[in-house]
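Supplementary Methods. Inverse-folding protocol.

Structures were first reduced to a discrete structure-token string of length 99. This string, shown here, constituted the complete conditioning input.
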């Protein structure tokens, strides 16, 4: 699956942004339905070498596309936030493996 092409087909913009300091936690990316837009944390991206950066971007985009698909009603939105994140991670792992 070409997640960047899929994002384009949904009309979802992908950009790098400083998502702030989260201390011990790490915010890799976020989905904003107003746009819609996926923001990838530039603080993390800048610390990666080229092969890692590509995998990181693909994973982030796929993860956030799961949330976009929830938002547009394509898939059911799970009530539990932890389950939602686990489902988004599983979707992203499967998407990256197929790439």
């Amino acid at each position: 699956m070409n997640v960047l092409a899929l994002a384009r087909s949904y009309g979802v913009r992908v950009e790098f942004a400083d998502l702030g300091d989260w201390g011990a936690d790490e915010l890799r990316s976020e989905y904003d339905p107003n746009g819609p837009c996926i923001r990838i944390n530039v603080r993390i991206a800048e610390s990666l070498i080229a092969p890692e950066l590509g995998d990181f971007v693909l994973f982030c985009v796929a993860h956030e596309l799961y949330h976009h698909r929830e938002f547009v009603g394509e898939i059911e939105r799970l009530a539990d936030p932890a389950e939602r994140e686990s489902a988004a991670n599983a979707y992203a792992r499967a998407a990256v493996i197929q790439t």
